[in-house]
# Entry
Amino acid sequence: MDDLLREFLTETNESLDVVDVELVKFEQDPNNEKILGNIFRLVHTIKGTCGFLGLPRLEAIAHAAETLMGKFRDGVPVTEAAVTLVLQSIDRIKQLVADLEASETEPVGDDRDLISELERMSEAGKPAIAAEAPKHTEGAMVYQVLERQLRPGEVSLDDLERAFREATVDESVFAVQAEPEPVAAAEPAVHAEPAAVAARKPAKAVVEAKEDGEGKSTAGSVSSQSIRVAVDTLEHLMTMVSELVLTRNQLLEIVRRHEDSEFKVPLQRLSNVTAELQEGVMKTRMQPIGSAWQKLPRIVRDLSNELGKAIELEMVGQETELDRQVLELIKDPLTHMVRNSADHGLEGPEARKAAGKPEKGTIRLAAYHEGGHIIIEIADDGRGLDVEKIRQKIVDNGLATEFELEKMTEAQIFKYVFAPGFSTASKVTNVSGRGVGMDVVKTNIDAIGGTVDLKSVAGKGTTFTIKIPLTLAIVSTLIVESAGDRFAIPQLSVVELVRAQQNSEHRIERIRDTPVLRLRNKLLPLVHLSKLLGITAIGGDAREPVSEEDGFIVVMQIGNQTFGVVVDAVFHTEEIVVKPMSTMLRHIGMFSGNTILGDGSVIMIIDPNGIAQAIGPSQAAAGIEETEHEEEKARDEAQLVSLLLFRAGSDQPKAVPLSLVTRLEEFSVDKVERSNGRDLVQYRGSLMPLVYFDEYAQRKTEGGLPMLVFSDAGRSMGLVVDEIIDIVEDRLEIEVGSERPGVLGSAVIKGKATEVVDIGHFLPQAFEDWFRRKEISAEALTRSLLFIDDAPFFRNMLGPVLKAAGYRVTVCASAVDALAMLEDGRKFDVVVSDIEMPDMNGFEFAEAVRRHPRLRSLPILALSSVCTPASIERGRQSGFDDYIAKFDRPGLIAALKEVSNHEMGIAA
Amino acid sequence: MTDDVNVLNDSIQYVTVVIGGQLFGLPISRVHDVFVPESITRVPLSRPEIAGVLNLRGRIVTTIDMRRRLDLPPRGDGAQVMAVGIEHKGESYGLLIDNVGEVLDLPSNGREPNPVNLDQRWAAISGGVHRLNGQLMVILDVDRVLGGMAEAIAA
# Structure
């Protein structure tokens, strides 16, 4: 049965019962205006609802009864006959409602008999009214005029109600309630046909009908199946059940300590009953999501008119239930998103036809359960998000630079639609495009611990996916310990747990004082829970907060921020009932609430959003995004590069591109062994030679030796430095070249003159054959390579890398020069070229080379920071043999190997 | 005679407590219970006066260290701690004190205003002073003890 109808039936049955009682009272005390007012209102409500639901028979009777009662109110003497008639009308309504309940449709029939009786009765009172008319308010007259124009009155009222329903939600309630009185008051005068009454016969008919109706009505009527309970009562029940759950947990904890307790069996039973009770009470709070969608068809219909688009709204999974608290909170975001889909998502009919789509656009709402969460999808089959427009908007709003955008995937760019003040609608309609909306949607959803994601396919449509917890009352949390105290972390935001140990695969590394974790090629910013909360262990046992080197890392994801929270211990997961914090503690953003654990102690619940904020969006988000795309970063000297800053030999800071460094280590001096005239440390089961940045400096005799570890093809070397300072993002522009070996030159990094270190200088010091060992017989296989890049930084940096791969490298700063060199007859075995260069870019260069008969088969590799499918395709078309991302050192070496082998295969 | 009537009608019962050697009185109407606080959970980042939260028969109670609130030196290790449970704006609080004394029935007209030279911190939360035999009892105004803290947070 339709929810609306069900509700109507429940409500109407209730109202009718009240009317019955009130009418009887009224008959005995006809001058009591209050009672009359009550009855009048109830009947009026029934009439209004019937009109809304399209139940003409009910509406007509209610209207007629109302008219008669209006007369009473206007001073017509209340006769027994009149009251009987009204009661009969009520009975007729009841009977119709019963039929409606049984068959879900209004029964066919005619109520003319009853209605004409009612009308006649109303008219009978007319002389009295006429006589008293001057005494009555003029307001009634005014309304009367209105009413006449709008006849038949039922319809007009209906429209009125509908209009109110469409008005802003908050006001509608008041409007509907406030309005009926004057309109109704005007009605007495409307039906003005003098006639007498003879109510006996119809009354009999009604009584029969009533009996008939009762005989038919089955035991399982809707109205008796559901009762309405105040939300407060439910909330209170929920609280009590929560308490019960907590007490049960406590009891379980006690029994756990006493092995052979006789309480065990009854407690087990109590536990089960409690669990069932909890579930039952939770259910009472559950409402089908359909109730949040009820308004949507109407909204879409109106939008469809307003925007001139044919829109169909499909709704799937209305019956999916979720906590009413959550339901309330997502109502508005959902409405907004549907509006958005209608306005931005769907194209106009012409555009749709042109795109070969049906003229009618579809917005599909779907809801379903998935592992303790509810997933809501809002999908349209419209044009999809316009990446270019969004890009433009991002740049216009200064949310990101063009460079940054170039590195982003479409999905990342789409995420910006959730940024505050973002709207791609170029014109502001009253539907959307005011730049508020999606960010509000996201904030609302975040607030209830949910996530929102979007997928978009150009020309095919956009799908938003909202994932929200079923309930906010009970949360599954992970209990952790930090500095001797326990805390609960909501599991929803926990991605994984990592055990970090000195020698395990996951190790915490430090960049100055900032701990980071390398986790599957991502650098994860770490933060100590104890530091975040500013706590140290209490008591004199001086239990040091467990060092970074071993602890548990709770990897959390909040929105697009991922970070690791270091805790001392992880216990177990526990379903907890969130209790609000005292007002004195509510200002602490790190906690969302507190609760009582099974052992009776109070525990604070960590608010993941608070932590994310404390870490700072810049650190967490940037840290991840940048490391993820580290290889793709840095395109030329004008671009940001991740640089590791350290001190060695002198006070002046030194820098090396982070991407070249494999690891950061620190060994204590006594771990250093000397063998065959060199310093070595045992590292991961093999010996690693150490190279001192400053060979002549005084060696440390105690403490730790920080070092940068460079690994290549299974070999590692450690470059010992004095101190690792920081990792920074900056432009790398070598302004002053250097004559000194080991230093490429000086650049301004973070406002300080910094030496940029030439790693190529140090590598051979560890392994003399570092650059040569890959050659089978040195010269014979040394191949010549032409490397073209307009950026000195890359020429300097990749030069050694290419040398290390066994090539004789010739560097060239421009494609024009390179082409001239090749045409001159200089022979190279392979060419590696940058793409973005002034004068002649890489594509043009490759095309030119391919046009040259002699150079047609020369292998050319493209090396670029822009590695999109489109640019790779473009590269292939231009004649490049392979296309490699800059900073993808292993990729470059592999590609070189491949082309060389291929070459040699042909040669042989 | 009128005086006597007033005395009879306007006497207030106080629960006396000792904090840092000083006798304080709390109106008995405000005191819900007196208990020995156990396993207080610290709340990081909270105001220093807040000793933490604890579970009192299934309710979470925020405890306030009255010594810190009154700017008194901290309790020594192992010293006795008691707590007075009170309600403030629908929330449960526990005031940590050193000891609980007897309940005194004191005439309200015996109450004297705070001495003008009383420490500002004390004056802010004191509702006056009663002269008892041999010592003074400072009346603790519970609402001001807690309200002052809430205001400080809001500020």
Observations:
- The longest strand of chain A covers residues 361-370.
- The mean pLDDT of chain A is 72.
